Amino acid sequence: MARRPRPGQRPPHEPIRATSMWRVDQIFLVRHGQRIEVICSLVNDQGGLRNLNIVAPTSDPVKAVRHAAKFVAGKGNVFSARQARLRWAREQVVTEQDELIRDYQLEDEFLDEFEETLSAVRDQMR
């Protein structure tokens, strides 16, 4: 039997859903020698946050971003990457102004590969 909250007491939290849908909010790139780490910040429909770290086996930022997009879209529960902001991580910037600069070309590369992979995954599910 479920207990009712006493007056002045907060109601119990809603249960966590087993399947939450996530979207890519921000993407950060970090150089590690000959490789690039791509950190994708995900947000779900209930306000939850999660980071996915992917180390791409390349030093080319375009290939690294496309590699990460395939990985993230292949997860199955990430539904969108539209309006995701892409920046180099704080360690990579030279001036404080660099922190504010978005790389629109790499954002487009990520979104294109994400949409292609997501489309292929959906086609396989049909």
Fold and architecture overview:
- The protein has helices spanning 61-73, 104-125, and strands spanning 22-32, 35-44, 49-56, 78-80, 85-88.
- With 126 residues, it is of the alpha/beta class.
- It has one domain (22-125): Nucleotidyltransferase, domain 5 (2-Layer Sandwich), CATH 3.30.420.
- The N and C termini lie far apart (42 Å).
Structural class: alpha/beta
Highest-level CATH class: Alpha Beta
The strand count comes to 5
In sequence order, what are the helices and strands, one letter per element?
A: EEEHEEH
Which shape, going by the Cα principal axes? globular
Radius of gyration, in angstroms, nearest whole number: 18 Å
Number of helices: 2
State the CATH topology. Nucleotidyltransferase, domain 5
Task: Estimate what percentage of residues fall within beta strands.
Answer: 25-35%
| Low-pLDDT ranges | none
Summed up, the domain count is 1
- Average pLDDT taken over every residue: 82
CATH architecture: 2-Layer Sandwich
Separation of termini? 42 Å
Largest sheet: 5 strands, mixed
Helix content: 25-40%
